Amino acid sequence: MNFDRFSLRGRTAVVTGAVGLLGRQHCAALGEAGANVVVTDLDADACRAVAAELERADVRALAVRADITDKTSVERLRDETVARFGAVDVLVNNAAVDDKFDPSGDLSASRFENYDVARFRRSLDVNVTGTFLCCQVLGAEMVRRGRGSIVNVASTYGVVAPDQSLYCDANGAQRFFKSAAYPASKSAVIALSRYLATYWGGAGVRVNTLSPGGVEAGQDDHFVQNYSRKTPIGRMARRDEYRGAIIFLASDASSYMTGANLVVDGGWTAW
Length: 271
Prior knowledge:
This protein has 271 residues and is α/β, with parallel strands linked by helices. It has helices at 21-32, 44-56, 71-85, 117-145, 181-199, 221-229, 243-250; strands spanning 12-16, 36-41, 61-65, 90-93, 148-153, 205-212, 261-264.
């Protein structure tokens, strides 16, 4: 097997939501595979800090503040990327809102019957419209050049419904309910990816989805134990365990793959 097909040397990858928990990992993985990495998020200082970390690891990086819900901002992101690196070869749509409720707060606010429509619209705006705009603007640049790979990050909650028992305390009392906004928006991301895969199938642009499972990141022990019991591998993911999937989907190693949803969840959805 020629492992050169996993190389991204000479290519340019844009990562949205790049300063978050997984965004930083995606940037590091793409950089290790040889890509120039464009770090984009709402916080300009944090973008510059992540780009500086990459440059210390000998990765060519560019920090660009962008609001993915604003088409003009996304167009600026495209223009700055092309001006610096000449092309957009890979787009990782990682930015997302996963709304949180304070477990010690008002349980009733998290119930579907009471859920604030403004919060629902905000999730759709970032998770769906933001992904749509980045695909539209940056994907069109790929189409113009006749090649590219788009990786839209969804979730296992785009495939199966949340288990609300995970959000109970050790005594079985419901602390809050996982809302419908995140599953609905992530299901839409999977559907959008399939649409674009068929729409751009003959244009040299591949579009796939990565659906990760839960990542251990300081949650309370009770939650981690419950989540781990529901996972065939018996634990939550480490934050670096999606690096291989990102490189695979971004590179020529997956050259005959489009419209697919790669689920990497420790077996969570296999039950």
